[in-house]
Backbone:
């Protein structure tokens, strides 16, 4: 979109309406007493909106009134990257000066304003806030902080965002979806870096994600399609980032799924009374598609076959979670042996 063919006294209004339709509703006020020119290019990569704004000196404001008029609008976390010119962001009483080559994070759910005192070019990246899985207090704390390309994480993030903005038009949908996940991962890391020094809660942003993933696994154990890929997709993160988050947990995501499924099967096989299901029925209920694979995995983890396990339980056995009865090295060998079982359908759980 460009104002080139718009009547002079209508250009700023036209450009402001275009920005409001593309990003979020805002007010635009030119800051220079001369003809206004503006240009906006925008692309969608999955759930990520990538836009480049170029215009004369301007104030762009998202007021409390504009926010109140669209209560159903989904809050976005935005990052503005100054390709040229300068910007000043004000949000939550915080003032951030963004020089050329820098970036700043903001939240569309609360009022803010950008002042561009001279002609500028800015890349804007917006991600739905809920997809980041971050506490609102962390986003509020990180918003309004300027980052330069010479400090810490900015040295990695800024070149990537610059390249992505320039090439956003060229990616097919499948690649765009994965790039959106990568940007979300980077924003999570950025917020974590900006908030970690002041964190008082022992559970960091990654700890929240680990807890959510564990709860997701418990809810979907019976789904044979449960895998690191499906888990990452459900949480709108990349598989690589999912594995990175679990590095400190002492278990990979694939092994965690395998362990939880075996524990659920062992509990059910040991349950006294009532109708006794077949071993294959129990295995299938908890996501094991191939009976032979289940038997191998169970014996490797507990030292006996599923039938022997059930037969050895007395009528007074408890319903608590079982513990493997074999050495750790044998369990490790078992997991490695069954990480890619032969299956007719469904996904194997690997590392």
Residues:
């Amino acid at each position: 979109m460009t104002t080139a063919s718009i009547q002079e006294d209508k250009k700023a209004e036209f450009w402001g309406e275009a920005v409001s339709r593309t990003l979020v509703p805002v007010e635009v006020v030119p800051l220079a007493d001369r003809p206004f020119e503006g240009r906006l290019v925008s692309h969608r990569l999955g759930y990520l909106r990538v836009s480049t704004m170029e215009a004369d000196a301007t104030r762009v404001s998202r007021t409390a009134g504009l926010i109140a008029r669209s209560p159903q609008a989904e809050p976005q976390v935005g990052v503005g990257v100054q390709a040229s010119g300068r910007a000043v962001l004000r949000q939550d009483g915080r003032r951030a000066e963004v020089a050329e080559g820098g970036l700043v994070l903001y939240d569309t759910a609360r009022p803010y304003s950008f002042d561009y005192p001279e002609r500028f070019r800015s890349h804007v990246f917006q991600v739905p806030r809920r997809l980041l899985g971050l506490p609102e207090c962390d986003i509020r704390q990180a918003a309004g902080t300027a980052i330069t390309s010479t400090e810490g994480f900015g040295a990695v993030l800024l070149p990537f965002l610059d390249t992505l903005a320039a090439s956003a038009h060229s990616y097919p949908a499948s690649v765009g979806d994965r790039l959106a996940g990568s940007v979300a991962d980077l924003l999570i890391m950025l917020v974590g870096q900006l908030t970690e020094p002041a964190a008082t809660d022992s559970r960091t942003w990654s700890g929240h994600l680990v807890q959510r993933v564990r709860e997701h696994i418990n809810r979907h154990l019976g789904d044979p399609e449960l895998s690191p890929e499906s888990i990452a997709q459900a949480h709108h993160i990349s598989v690589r980032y999912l594995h990175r988050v679990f590095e400190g947990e002492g278990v990979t995501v694939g092994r965690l799924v395998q362990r939880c499924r075996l524990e659920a099967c062992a509990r059910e096989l040991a349950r006294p009374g009532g109708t006794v299901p077949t071993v294959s029925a129990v295995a299938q209920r908890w996501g094991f598609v191939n009976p032979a694979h289940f038997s191998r995995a169970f014996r490797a983890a507990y030292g006996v076959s599923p039938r022997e396990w059930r037969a050895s339980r007395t009528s007074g056995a408890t319903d608590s979670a079982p513990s493997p009865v074999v050495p750790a090295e044998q369990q490790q060998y078992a997991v490695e042996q069954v990480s890619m079982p032969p299956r007719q359908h469904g996904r194997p759980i690997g590392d």
Remarks:
- The longest strand covers residues 76-84.
